[in-house]
Specification:
The complex is a heterodimer. In chain A, 71% of the residues lie in helices and 3% in strands. The termini of chain A are far apart. Chain A has one domain: ABC transporter involved in vitamin B12 uptake, BtuC (Orthogonal Bundle), CATH 1.10.3470. Chain A is globular, with a radius of gyration of 19 Å. Chain A is mainly alpha-helical. In chain A, helix 2 packs across helix 3. In chain A, the strands form 2 sheets. A two-stranded antiparallel ribbon of chain A has the order 1-4. By secondary structure, chain B is of the alpha/beta class. Chain B folds into 2 domains: 204 residues, Rossmann fold, CATH 3.40.50.2300; 143 residues, Rossmann fold (3-Layer(aba) Sandwich), CATH 3.40.50.2300. Chain B has 13 helices and 14 strands. In chain B, helix 2 packs parallel to helix 12 and helix 9 runs parallel beside helix 10. The radius of gyration of chain B is 22 Å and the shape is globular. Classes of the chains: A mainly alpha, B alpha/beta. At the A-B interface, helix 1 and helix 10 of A face strand 7, helix 8, helix 9 and helix 10 of B.
């Protein structure tokens, strides 16, 4: 029983990270019908920004929640800026082009960021300074069940960010504008919504979440490197599709489902198929329910 | 429209031009040198392996050239980075042989990459010396492929024997890297010997290189209550594994192989690495005069204590140079014959003799992580 609960705890922690990244994918797809494959790299940028912020501001000398917030804000700001720049330079000029062009460009941006990251940060894995939260070594154990405080912190922060996003999307004018744009660009602009600005804002919001995920991952698994965004990016994409791409609640549901599935597969069955599981799920969902668990199948009337 | 086309074409040339000029500069100065190729992972996830090995190789080349070179010619090493990928290692090998026309190749550290390189070196009949690849399959590829380190059947035996006789433990769990020929091989040989010595492998779990979360595997291992965990992987994952194991409450010692040999292991693993044991090619605490002299010269050149990989890189180069000196000529077949005849060469990692299978027969040391550094624990000799 303890082992089962341990897996559940691990899965929740993993799922919350996937959720933060998946939200970015789903939001961007919602407004642009584009799978932003460069999103995983934004998550990586967030992790590195967090690390450099902590180093340069010597935050390890003042451990505590305050330092964590500073690192998070720095990472989120940097990621949002990166997202904004990418959208402006790489995607906006192709707004009227066929979707395949955008897709290829997204892959190109992803590769560009990966290799630039290797040049700028060095391709050696680096150690993320976990000292900013003085909880190393403190674990809560109930019998055989061990909960790392960092896992709880990550889960709580992820949930807070998700609630904030939920609030923005469903209770603010900006959110309403985002939902309008994701319904139809032209109708939205006919209603007086500045489409371009809303799209930029969506990008920035999604990227900020990915940046936060980067810092949280750095704290739990202190090893970061410029290629770290590839796998989590792809898995978060699968999570978003699983929940119904374009659907914010779906992304969160898909992410936690994927986290649980992965954790149980690895714990009770074959650990080596961990990555294969995500792609297997992708194939199954696309075959049997392409609109995802919560997705609405919008029939197009010709 | 025309201006744009002109601009684009000019930019295209501007990008392509440096690529065309680059290789030519090498060709001009190469006449009076013996060219040796080196393939290493100076970038990528095991970058410290490639960098350390190259520093060892470079130090050796400088020392050989300082004493006049070989048969009147100086040595020159051409290093190509394989980014830690076997496909790139193969491409680098082909390029070194066909374009740079090297006489011999030193590489690689990782068995997966050596396995990718060896068929090409064998095909072109260029002697290849691996400084640290321990998977036995590497030299089995052909008679032009050598290594100056021990092989995994011996290394697995070393840790198994150490566990059974020195640490007196009976139950071990294994956590291996399935993406890695080295890790899989070493785990297999450890298992064979440990079982022969009366031990029991309570669980055999795996992960893939690049994973960062091992809690599921460790949770399963924890449930079997082993006396130790054998993790024959590379330092990049081992550090994280140690952390997660400790945080899950697993207090038993961890054991590993020479893939742990990197300062980054301690950086990433931190306090969780304390008390862990691993087998290696040499220890910086070895009191023999020639080892200490080497460590001093290395420290002068690089301001750092040499790791096992740097020492192996140094020895591989020295063995190659020694073979070139003994060879009848500098043709690749003569060099190959001289390499195969290497007996009792005094390297900094021990007395190196190349056996019939073109492997080196040498003792291994077991190191222990104590207070954030690698301390010498024991030596285990072959046979």
């Amino acid at each position: 029983m303890d082992q089962f609960l341990q897996h559940v705890i691990n899965a929740l922690s993993l799922g919350s990270i996937y959720a933060l990244i998946a939200l970015g994918y789903t939001m961007v797809f919602g407004v642009l019908q584009l799978i932003n494959f460069a999103h995983g790299e934004i998550y990586m940028l967030g992790a590195f920004t967090g690390m450099y912020t902590i180093r340069w501001l010597r935050l390890e000398e003042h451990p505590g929640i305050g330092s964590l917030i500073i690192a998070l804000i720095a990472a989120m700001a940097a990621s949002a800026t990166a997202g904004f720049i990418i959208e402006r330079l790489a995607y906006r000029p192709l707004r009227k082009s066929p979707r395949i062009n955008l897709l290829i460009t997204a892959v190109g941006v992803s590769l560009f960021l990966q290799y630039s990251g290797q040049l700028v940060f060095g391709s050696d894995p680096q150690f993320f300074p976990t000292g900013i939260l003085e909880i190393e070594g403190y674990n809560w154990s109930y019998g055989d069940l061990v909960i790392e405080p960092m896992q709880i912190v990550a889960l709580v922060l992820a949930l807070i960010l998700m609630f904030v996003l939920q609030y923005i999307i469903f209770r603010t004018r900006l959110g309403r504008a985002m939902r309008a744009v994701s319904f139809n660009h032209d109708f939205a602009s006919l209603m007086g919504i500045p489409t371009n600005q809303i799209i930029s804002a969506t990008f920035m919001l999604g990227s900020a979440l990915a940046g936060a995920a980067g810092v949280l991952v750095g704290l739990i698994y202190p090893k970061i490197d410029p290629l770290m965004g590839t796998m989590p990016g792809l898995k978060a994409f699968v999570a978003a599709v699983l929940g119904g791409i374009g659907n914010v609640t779906g992304a969160v549901l898909g992410a936690f489902t994927l986290g649980l599935a992965e954790e149980f597969l690895v714990g009770y069955w074959v650990p080596t198929y961990r990555d294969a599981l995500a792609f297997g799920i992708l194939i199954l969902i696309l075959l049997f329910k392409p609109s995802g668990l919560l997705g609405v199948h919008r029939a197009e009337k010709v | 429209m025309n201006m744009r086309l002109v601009t684009r074409v000019t930019l295209g040339f501007a990008v392509a031009a440096p690529l065309a000029i680059g290789p030519n500069i090498e060709a001009q100065a190469a006449e009076d040198f013996i060219k040796i190729g080196e393939v290493g992972s100076t970038t990528g996830s095991e970058a410290t392996f490639g960098v350390a090995t190259h520093q060892g190789v470079d130090l050796a080349i400088k020392e050989i050239n300082a004493t006049g070179g070989i048969k009147g010619k100086k040595l020159k090493v051409i290093l190509l980075d394989d980014q830690g990928k076997p496909e790139e290692a193969a491409t680098a090998t082909t390029r070194l042989i066909t374009q740079d026309k090297v006489t011999a190749i030193i590489g690689e550290v990782a068995s997966s990459r050596s396995l990718a390189m060896a068929p090409i070196a064998q095909q072109y009949k260029i002697p290849m010396i691996s400084p640290s690849s321990t998977n036995p399959k590497v030299t089995e590829i052909g008679d032009y492929i050598f290594r100056v380190c021990f092989i995994d059947p011996f290394q697995g035996f070393v840790m198994a024997r150490f566990a059974a006789e020195n640490l007196k433990i009976k139950r071990v769990a294994i956590l291996r890297d399935v993406k890695n020929d080295y890790s899989v091989g070493l785990a297999k040989y450890f298992t064979e010997t440990f079982k022969k010595l009366g031990g029991d492998i309570v669980l055999d779990q795996s992960y893939s290189a690049g994973d960062i979360d091992f809690k599921s595997q460790l949770t399963a291992i924890r449930a079997t209550k082993p006396d130790a965990i054998f993790v024959p992987g590379y330092y990049t994952e081992v550090g994280l594994i140690a952390r997660q194991a400790r945080s899950l409450g697993i207090k038993v010692p961890m054991m590993g192989g020479d893939g742990w040999d990197s300062p980054k292991l301690l950086q990433i693993g931190g306090k969780a690495m304390e008390g862990a044991y691993f087998s290696n090619h040499y220890s910086a605490e070895d009191k023999s005069p020639h080892v200490q002299a080497f460590i001093d010269r290395y420290r002068k050149a690089y301001k750092d204590t040499p790791s096992g990989l740097a020492a192996m890189g140094f020895d591989a180069t020295m063995v190659l140079a020694d073979a070139m000196k003994r060879a009848k000529s500098l043709s690749t077949s003569d060099i190959r014959a001289a390499l195969a005849a290497t007996k009792d060469f005094q390297g900094v990692t021990g007395r190196i003799s190349i056996d019939q299978q073109r492997n080196a027969v040498k003792p291994a040391v077991v190191l222990k992580v104590v207070n954030g550094s690698f301390a010498y624990e024991s030596t285990i000799r072959p046979g």
